[in-house]
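yo

u said u wanted the structure for the complex thing, so here. seqs first:
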Amino acid sequence: MSAPVGATAPAGQVDRGAPVLRAEGLVKTYGRVVGLDGVDLEVHPGEVLAIIGDNGAGKSTLIKCLTGAVVPDRGQLYLDERPITFKRPQDARDAGIETVYQTLAVAPALDIASNIFLGREQRRKGVLGSVFRMLDTAGMRASAEEKVRALGIQTIQNMTQTVETLSGGQRQAVAVARAAAFGSKVVVLDEPTAALGVKESGQVLRTIQELRASGLPVILISHNMPHVFEVADRIHVQRLGRRAAVITPQTHSMTEAVAIMTGASPGR
Amino acid sequence: MTTTTAPSAPSSAAEEFEQRRRSPLQRLQLVLHRRPELSPAAVLLVAVIIFGLINERFWQPANLSLVLQQVAVVAALAVGQTLIILTAGIDLSVGAVMILATVVIGYLVSARGAPGWLALLVGIVVGTGAGLLNGFLVTRIRLPPFIVTLGTLNILTAIALLVSGGISVPGSELGGLLTFTGTSFPVGPFRVTTGVLVVLALYAVVGFALRQTAWGRHVYAVGDDAEASRLAGISVNRVLLSVYTIAGLIFGLTAWVLIGRAGSASPNAGVEANLDSITAVVIGGTSLFGGRGSLLGTLLGAITVGVFRNGLALAGVDVLYQTLVVGVLVIAAVAVDQWIRRVKA
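structre next:
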């Protein structure tokens, strides 16, 4: 893979243009448990930002704040430098932030095309669509196929196959294709390779690179250091509800990243 | 933590191997998985042939016409029941809703002198309201559908008996429109009642909505995986509420078919319809776990039950054995569904 722009300089010192999505001072507490303790985050156009952190470091809460699943107690989100508030996941989706959940959120008995267009079905043109509310099944299939091809996903061939007949990696590909098809600003991937074998993980990583090549920024949450170091441009290290450091695969080794994650090294 | 490198093994060889390794049984499982209505279709076909061979009167057009008329009411209720079971719910109150609508219609005409069309309209509204109540309790109060409809089954049955005083209103008092569904006309050698046509129209309309509209797709998706549907931006509660309400409307409309079939508005007709509708849906291949099944299967399931009852009667089998056989069919159908659901990729 090619080295990202500004690979030689430490993160944060390179001008990457205005961030697409920026979070400032996010705080979220659950009773007396502090989930997020003033977290900043920014994602720039066309980059893969990985978020790593130990269990309980606040990765999930952070992601949920970005995708509208959780409303932060304090702090502000900016989309294209304009303040924005998400009260529900649908708000984030409407704003162009698509999420691939760890559980994949696919309906197993529906076919691939139906899943890609689930909740966003397209109707036929003319009276059939407007009066009889008929779905444009053929059109959606064709366009689903186009989107899958555009991502370079070769493991999925037949759009009429039901999702439950697919392997874990293929299901992941469907979920990613859906996110990429409708995410106009940012695509968030939550542990996309956690349940996958070696071959399938490789496919997902290639898809992430395709997404970046298309100019769409990706936020990748992962426990898997080799995967993170393979695709990430920058790595946001979350520790004890805060951002401990932002590093790059070029400036830090995996061992150093883990050290920051666990508190053995202060970071920066 | 696993350490992996970017792999690039050819993917198709292993998959092709998987394809070839399938036994005939596994292939059957796959086919049934795609088209769950094939199993009731096969059972129905075999049953029709065997019953005809046992007693050739079974095949006579007059008898086949009778079977259709006998299953019309349960088949109509099963349309609403299918919608609900597709969302992984269940409705024990379908017959009670229909009977309540029936006695309300009878009461309005006989005691209040209302015109037939108005009484029918109010009956359908009552059915819709009962469905809305079920849907409200399921989605807002978050009670399990089984408990909600068990409750409304008792409540609505009691109200129906209170309204009617346990007395039937004869068809002669009800007038032409309300008994219109009982009138029959010849189609070739067969005699079809208007009620059967109403039921078939119901299947066509709801079947279209299920297969061709976004709403139908959402009904399947919600039953398949409610959480995934919510994350995909579907308002799960709105879909569920619409399903229970539309089902109530269907049960209200079925009251019309029941009045035509029974020739009166009776609080005692169709009391066994609650469970019969579930039987038809399950034999029709719709999964009780939601998200899988079809209205065509339900129609076949309803007809299958009718064919078994009629065919066994013509074969001289005691009525108790007919019920026994239907019970066996239900268990077999669910067992097949369980097996189909275990299909491997």
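The radius of gyration of chain B is 22 Å. Confidence is low (pLDDT under 50) at residues 1-17 of chain B.
cya
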